């Protein structure tokens, strides 16, 4: 199962039974990270190996199990990405986000191969009555990154999902291309970004580090609340220059 399909299926199920948007989002983030880890770390990106996702609901608790078919991996001993020595690492935040957004995360590495990650959380009472049969939401178009100039400042308008795969890669490559062309002042307008996962955060960190290595500055502006929350919980909010509006960002970078 691919990351997008799994996260959307779980979110759709929660919405159908009347779970509020905040709880849907928090669960979706955790499922997205668990499936990505199963594909990358568990199965080693082997297309012959499968990832299974099972959802159980009872007694006011949601339980999600994600199982891979790889040799097994241990998510219990990962270093805290908030540590000052690791904050600018481009990887290593997926399990942290799972633990932050769910009440409990357990890794079961089986002797015969494969790892099952069990995540559970207490759900708030439904805010609306259950719907009928679940109809999947239209899949968003891929992440786009449009570049423009404001004097010597390069502004990137990001839209869509900055997530594992094309979205994170496109952001990273767009910034690197601008740096190679001589840009040293960069602003990423995040207003139309709908989702950021640990790979997207890693792409932002890589863009920041590459810009700093060139003696430049990179700022973010118009962060949606959910993107802002992820930067706050990973303690990256103090690393980036962050502005409420593009005008303030341009003034700050001038």
Task: Give an overview of the whole structure.
This protein is an alpha/beta fold. It has helices spanning 3-16, 21-42, 94-101, 166-180, 198-213, 225-233, 246-253, and strands at residues 51-58, 61-68, 104-109, 115-122, 144-150, 153-162, 185-196, 217-221, 241-243. Helix 1 (3-16) packs antiparallel against helix 2 (21-42) and helix 2 runs antiparallel to helix 3 (94-101).
Nutshell version of this structure?
The protein has 254 residues and is an alpha/beta fold. It has 7 helices and 9 strands. Helices cover 36% and strands 26% of the residues.
Keywords:
four-stranded antiparallel sheet; alpha/beta; 254 residues; single chain
Shape: globular
Rg for CA atoms: 19 Å
**Low-confidence spans:** none
How much of the sequence lies in strands comes to 25-35%
SS elements, strand count? 9
The tally of helices reads 7
C-alpha termini separation: 46 Å
Structural class: alpha/beta
Strand order of the largest sheet: 5-6-7-8-9
What's the SSE blueprint?
Layout: H1 3-16, H2 21-42, E1 51-58, E2 61-68, H3 94-101, E3 104-109, E4 115-122, E5 144-150, E6 153-162, H4 166-180, E7 185-196, H5 198-213, E8 217-221, H6 225-233, E9 241-243, H7 246-253
Parallel strand pairs: 6-7, 7-8, 8-9
Antiparallel strand pairs: 1-2, 2-4, 3-4, 5-6
Helix pairs in contact: 1-2, 2-3, 4-5
């Amino acid at each position: 199962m691919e990351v997008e399909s799994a996260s959307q299926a779980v979110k759709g199920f929660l919405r159908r039974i009347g779970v509020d948007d905040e709880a849907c989002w928090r669960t979706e983030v955790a499922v997205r990270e668990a499936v990505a880890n199963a594909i990358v770390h568990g199965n080693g990106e082997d297309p012959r190996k499968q990832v299974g996702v099972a959802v159980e609901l009872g007694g006011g608790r949601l339980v999600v199990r994600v199982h891979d078919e790889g040799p097994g991996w241990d998510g219990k001993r990962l270093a805290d990405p908030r540590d000052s020595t690791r904050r600018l690492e481009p990887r290593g935040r997926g399990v942290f986000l799972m633990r932050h957004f769910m009440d409990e995360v357990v890794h079961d590495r089986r002797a015969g191969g494969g790892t099952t990650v069990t995540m559970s959380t207490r759900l708030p009472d439904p805010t609306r009555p259950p719907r009928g049969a679940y109809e999947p939401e239209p899949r968003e178009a891929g992440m786009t990154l449009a570049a423009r100039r404001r004097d010597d400042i390069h502004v990137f308008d990001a839209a869509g999902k900055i997530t594992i795969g094309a979205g994170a890669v496109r952001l990273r490559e767009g910034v690197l291309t601008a740096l190679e062309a001589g840009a040293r002042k960069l602003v990423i307008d995040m207003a139309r970004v709908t989702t950021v996962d640990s790979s997207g955060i890693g792409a932002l960190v890589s863009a920041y580090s590459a810009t700093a290595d060139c003696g430049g500055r990179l700022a973010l502006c118009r962060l949606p609340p959910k993107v802002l929350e992820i930067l706050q919980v990973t303690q990256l909010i103090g690393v980036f220059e962050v502005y409420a509006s593009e005008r303030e960002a341009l003034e700050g970078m001038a």
